[in-house]
Design a protein that fits this description.
elongated
Length: 75
Amino acid sequence: MSYAEWREIMDVTLDGTFHCVKACLPELRKIRGRDYRQHRWPQRGHTGAKNRAHVVTAKAGIIGFTRALAHDPRR
């Protein structure tokens, strides 16, 4: 994979997730006592796939981001 392919996946997947959550978070904060954090990704986000290191890395980043957000949704 080229560096451009790597950056494209990181930009779309990680940056896109960040911007979507940031835009939705004010409304989501109004929902108290309900589990509203849900990101969906294929199983390969956990297991890996041939020639897909950049995609698997980005998906793992979303998992970490979601877990961290669950601890401090005010940021």
